[in-house]
Amino acid sequence: MENKQSASRRREAAAVAKGSVNMSSCEFESLEKSLESHLPEAELVQVKRILYGKETRKLELPVSALQAASEHDFELKGYQFDASQEQLRPPRRTRVGLVQHRIVLPTDAPILDQINAMHTRIGVIAEVAAMCGVNIICFQETWTMPFAFCTREKEPWTEFAESAEEGITTRFCQELARKYNMVVVSPILEREELHGTLWNTAVVISNSGNVMGKSRKNHIPRVGDFNESTYYMEGDSGHTVFQTQFGRIAVNICYGRHHPLNWFMYSMNGAEIIFNPSATVGVLSEPMWPIEARNAAIANHCFTCAINRVGTEQFKSEFTSGDGRKAHHDFGHFYGSSYVAAPDGSRTPGLSRTRDGLLVVELDLNLNRQVSDKWSFKMTGRYAEYAEELQRAIRHDFTPKIVKE
């Protein structure tokens, strides 16, 4: 006779099958916890092997950091990717910190109050990251504000935009970088005063506290609620890579993760770690989320870091999606689940779908070349041929090469 727990699971599965429960929007905490709760240990090992590749070792974190995370109500996890010991190169270990969080104040609170509240919250998490030895920390897309770009309203949301070089958020991040000897990747809504242009931008700040530069979002979505083209332009910064003390990094902002060539170009410019700060909801993209950054790590022989915000953000004014749905005050649950993927196809478990969190991951960058030597994707790529065919494909008189009977 099946027990009550099994019967409950069967009823839940039936409800999902009938569409009475939308599991993409239900706030269950994480895929990992669900698997661990329901699978026998031996079976769980095999499922994780298929889902996550080679097992990623847990990273021992300071007790003081774990206590601070608990006191300030955010999840703290740590993992480690190892590389083989080489004879001619020492290990190249660096620690990255991925931060996911919900907004602190309601969306109708005064703007400066919202920004200051986010600074305070991130300041606490960054301090814990420093306790864990993080060398490079990256925040989520436009981390100082609600993700209001789907409301179609310009005011008050454009008031969150600030200078990438001299804005209050960049100055705040410069203080963090100097204080903790940490590279800071700070995605913001940027205002370029000279031309009055807004950009979705990641500011990269060296561990010295100097602004190294910025990377602007290359691809702007036009998908349902996420039609952001009314707010900012496609980026003009190309595929910039930043040589930091702790490795060469790049920032592929949000929607760019759906474009394989976008990841590829950062890799071609020498990126060893590509960060993907995002804001995306369950009903739209969750089945894609565990796959895309991992695929990019495999294809490009580099580490990738996928970061998503959490929570459901409510807006005072209703808005529509242009898809026949009724007007609504939110566009769904941001499902967190931030993770890091390695070039050998392995990846860490994700952070929670529902809680603020800090994921600390130690990478041995030697793994990039070791995997490249094994699989040789870049060496065997036919780039000259691809470039020639792409050049033809973008012409107005292009005719595809199709053989017919």
Offer a few descriptive terms.
hydrolase; globular; 405 residues; 12 helices; single chain; eight-stranded mixed sheet; Nitrilase/N-carbamoyl-D-aminoacid amidohydrolase; disordered N terminus
Describe the structure.
Strand 10 (242-244) and strand 11 (247-251) form a beta hairpin. The chain has one domain: Carbon-nitrogen hydrolase (Nitrilase/N-carbamoyl-D-aminoacid amidohydrolase), CATH 3.60.110.10. It has helices at residues 4-18, 31-38, 41-52, 63-71, 111-131, 168-180, 260-268, 282-285, 289-300, 366-375, 377-380, 383-393, and strands at residues 57-58, 75-80, 93-100, 136-138, 183-192, 197-205, 211-216, 222-223, 226-227, 242-244, 247-251, 273-278, 303-308, 310-311, 334-335, 339-341, 357-364. The N and C termini lie far apart (61 Å). With 405 residues, the chain is α/β, with parallel strands linked by helices. The strands form four sheets. Strands 1-2-17-3-4-5-6-7 form an eight-stranded mixed β-sheet. Strands 10-11-12-13-16 form a five-stranded mixed β-sheet, covered by helices on one side. The protein has a two-stranded antiparallel ribbon with strand order 8-9. The longest helix has 21 residues, at 111-131. The protein is globular. Mean pLDDT is 92; it is low at 1-24. Helix 4 (63-71) runs antiparallel to helix 5 (111-131) and helix 5 (111-131) packs parallel to helix 6 (168-180). Pathway: Amino-acid biosynthesis; beta-alanine biosynthesis. GO terms for molecular function: beta-ureidopropionase activity.
